[in-house]
Design a protein that fits this description.
alpha+beta; Immunoglobulin-like; Beta Polymerase, domain 2; eight-stranded mixed β-sheet; 25 helices; 22 strands; globular
């Protein structure tokens, strides 16, 4: 299989990450032990608060507690409780580590039914008398606290000592009789009688027989890995084989698609070198490979189209690719396969087309399909290298000139642009912000402030509360609801839309009557301001950056690749793709601003190139290394509320590192820093036409989205398997495009992409590249302007096929749940 060495390097990084997390947990527990004998401070409920009745005054608001380990899950809001919520773990004022509730399970790797020891250190203020606290076992990544594998009631009051701040417990239990990754969580349990007293809050609890569990997690353990047993492995393989036979006999597309995914999940759990090499594994994998090799007409004859699976061929090919990826990234699975089957999987992998998501027997079949389905010219890529295309006069001269002409109409007049948006802000400040009486400040972020805005760009606005005033998700909605009421009382506002008040980041959308500009208003989105500043810094490194950004934004909008309602990428996502691409050029046009020290003089720290890295992995002296502690870089911490990911009623502060080399920072020589950055970008002399064409090729044909992550903070390649371990459960394994947020690294900017939209975007980039390549190689077959107009031709609606296939995206998980 391919990329073996890369996967091995990634495995080492994963092991290092797990060891680091375990060490942090042990250090925290040692801190808890040192403070266990210290008395609680007066007012043990400091940091606790009550939900708002209506709308609070600033003076009445207490400081929010911070608790980076506490997690809420996004299926529902937390049940109200008469007891204090979890206490502090880190002070945002002094950034010092504070005692917090912790759970440690040993051993970390266990066999079925093996004895485990779980050590708990709980904050006394989180365990008041009367609160029923339990320890539950859950799958790692399970999004709610419902349906634990088992629970054990804790009796912290028995271990409570007068005035002591920590309660230490130790219990033993057995590992579950199933394989996979698990974690223990400390949660509050409610009896059914308590539920009946909360009739108004029924949606905030989860029923399980006569018990329910709060959505607030007081502490989460380190990961417990339970190894698969051979008997369980063989039994699961036989079940998969039976489902394959049944689905073929019945022509059941849904059953077959679910079986692919079931087999994929089984392979992901193969991690024990003592598993035997069962012939049934090779038989099952061989059956699936043979199914993919069927003639398309035979496959369509056996498996009829249904409303839920309109194109079984495409669905099965995509599912097979996910299976092959599991085999490739798991050496233990490879060790269980016969040499013949190993060869067959590698051969099938080489026949995969990332543009269409299908397997083809040869390049001719692939290009013929492109011609038939996407109306693409047939180009022999084996004889016409991409380098010859992008350096042709057609690209370097004519396409470059065309881009500059187009962008001249897209870039707004700066004075008029800011005058219009400034007037809108003045109106909002006068008629809304002042009337709120919360001492909040209105700030602009996004495209209106990052130097990538257009005249028709939305105006992104944020209300920031006074320093250290953090709001819960519920409070943000209440404030924004008050904003809506004020706007409705004033005839200066129109088209007020509240549909996104319940989103991850609550937003009110509206327009100011005198201006045809869509406005989005949110609360306390401090990270967005740092993102805006980062993009502005990149925009001013080199003039080509803005030229490329504007033409790409224009292209994706006209080709209907930039529509959130249709689950395609945001403009922010495309800008991150562009920055990543320009960082990967030889020589790079953009540096990695997040690893440049304040004293950077413009010179490289080493001689490494993207194509030939000579420094050791993760060397602090290498330009291709991400931010490391050994670099001694400045720290600019921005505290985000983890309620961004949920709808709970408690705020937890999570520090996010947002430092970057900022030419526009206060008290720096902006002119000198911009000169350094311009000199860096000037080392790359590619024309804007060449870079645009390379961009289309990179994301249309070249980029391996099934293995790699688009990352702007990494000088080196970011592999999906290491990203999955670092940021599970928020980061998921899939073969679609993934874009890492530069600061909130657990957030996948491309998470909205569904499979059909992922392929649609790749096909649009490929379509544009192939048309340019054909003209560069053979000469344009039509007028140049007509050709370019056809490349960016407006798409008013997505094709019927794309809409129909979108139903597949929500089907697979339901199918697997049904099978399991």
């Amino acid at each position: 299989m391919r990329n073996t060495s890369a996967n091995n390097d990634s495995t080492h990084r994963i092991d290092d990450t797990q060891s680091l997390e375990l060490n942090k947990l042990i250090i925290q527990m040692q801190l808890n032990e040192r403070t266990a004998q210290q008395p609680q401070r007066n007012g043990g409920a400091v940091g606790t608060r009550k939900p708002l009745e209506n709308l609070p005054s600033v003076a009445a608001k207490s400081t929010m507690h911070s608790h980076a380990q506490m997690r809420k899950h996004n299926h529902r809001a937390a049940p109200s409780s008469q007891y204090p919520p979890p206490g502090p773990s880190k002070s945002p004022l002094n950034n010092q580590l504070q005692p917090r509730s912790t759970v440690l399970v040993v051993p970390q790797t266990a066999q079925y039914n093996e004895t485990l020891r779980v050590t708990l250190s709980l904050l006394a203020q989180e365990c008041p008398v009367g609160r029923k606290v339990v320890l539950g076992l859950y799958r790692t990544g399970q999004l709610t606290n419902e349906r634990p594998f088992f629970v054990k009631q804790l009796f912290p009051e028995r271990m409570r000592q007068l005035m002591h701040s920590m309660i230490n417990l130790s219990i033993t239990c057995r590992a579950p009789k199933c394989s996979g990754n698990f974690e223990f969580r400390v949660v509050e349990q409610f009896e059914i009688a308590q539920e009946q007293n909360r009739q108004r809050n029924l949606k905030q609890v989860v029923r399980e027989d006569v018990k329910s569990y709060s959505d607030i997690t007081f502490a989460t353990s380190n990961m417990l890995h339970v190894l698969m047993e051979d008997a369980d492995f063989k039994k699961s393989l036989l079940s998969v084989q039976n489902k394959i036979q049944q689905s073929v006999e019945d022509g059941d597309s849904q059953l077959m698609l679910g079986t692919f995914t079931l087999f994929q999940r089984l392979l992901e759990r193969v991690d024990h070198p003592k598993l035997q090499k069962h012939e049934i594994l090779s038989v099952v994998l061989g059956q699936l490979i043979n199914l993919i090799l069927w003639n398309q007409s035979e496959l369509e004859k056996c498996f009829k189209s249904t409303d839920s699976i309109p194109r079984p061929v495409e669905a099965f090919h995509s599912a097979m690719w996910n299976v092959l990826q599991c085999v490739e990234r798991n050496p233990m699975v490879q060790s269980l396969l016969s040499p013949t089957l190993t060869h067959n999987t590698a051969a099938l992998t080489s026949r995969y087309c990332p543009v269409t998501g299908l397997f083809f027997k040869d390049i001719t079949s692939r290009l013929s399909y492109w011609k038939m389905k996407a109306d693409l010219p047939v180009i022999d890529f084996q004889h016409h290298r991409m380098e010859d295309v992008v350096t042709s006069p057609f690209i370097t001269n004519r396409v470059s000139d065309w881009i500059k002409r187009q962008v001249s109409f897209l870039i707004p007049n700066k004075e008029e642009f800011w005058r219009t948006r400034g007037t809108i802000c003045d109106i909002i400040n006068q008629y809304v912000v002042k009337e709120l009486g919360l001492d909040a400040k209105l700030y602009v972020f996004g495209s209106s402030a990052n130097d990538f805005g257009m005249n028709e760009s939305d105006l992104d606005l944020c209300l920031l509360m006074p320093k250290h005033e953090l709001m819960t998700h519920i409070e943000k909605r209440q404030v924004l609801s008050r904003v809506v009421a004020l706007m409705k009382d004033c005839d200066l506002f129109q088209d007020i839309d509240t549909r996104r008040l319940g989103a991850r980041v609550p937003i009110v959308m509206f327009k100011v009557s005198a201006f045809d500009i869509e406005c989005d208003l949110c609360m306390e989105n401090a990270l967005a301001h740092r993102n805006t500043a980062l993009l502005r810094a990149y925009a001013n490194v080199d003039p080509r950056v803005r030229l490329l950004a504007y033409i790409i934004k224009h292209f994706v909008k006209r080709r209907r690749m930039n529509c959130a309602a249709e689950r395609t990428l945001s403009s922010y996502g495309y800008l991150l793709m562009l920055i990543h691409f320009l960082q990967q050029q030889e020589p790079p046009l953009l540096p990695n601003l997040q690893t440049l020290p304040e004293s950077w003089d413009g010179n490289p720290r080493c001689g490494c190139k993207r194509s030939s890295q000579t420094c050791p992995l993760r060397s602090p002296h290498c330009d291709l290394t991400e931010r490391l502690d050994e670099m001694n870089l400045p720290s600019v911490q921005c505290y985000k509320s983890s309620t961004d990911r949920s709808k709970g009623s408690i705020v937890e502060l999570v520090p996010v590192e947002t430092y970057f080399f900022n030419p526009f920072a206060k008290n720096v020589d902006t002119h000198a820093r911009l000169k350094l950055l311009e000199a860096f970008g000037g080392q790359n002399d590619a024309t804007v036409g060449e870079l645009f064409t390379r961009f289309l090729f990179y994301y249309g044909i070249h980029f391996d989205s099934s293995r790699k992550v688009v990352s702007t903070r990494m000088g080196r390649t970011m592999w999906k398997n290491e990203k999955f371990v670092q940021d599970s459960p928020y980061w998921r394994y899939h073969s679609r495009l993934s874009i890492e947020d530069p600061f909130e690294t657990s957030y996948d900017v491309a998470h909205v992409l569904k499979e059909t939209r992922h392929f649609y975007i790749r096909q649009q980039f490929t379509r544009a590249y192939v048309k340019l390549a054909e003209a560069a190689i053979q000469g344009p077959s039509e007028d140049f302007d007509d050709l370019m107009d056809r490349i960016i031709e407006q798409v008013d609606t997505l094709s019927f096929q794309a809409k129909l296939n979108a139903q597949l995206d929500d089907l697979r998980e339901d199918t697997v749940e049904h099978l399991m």
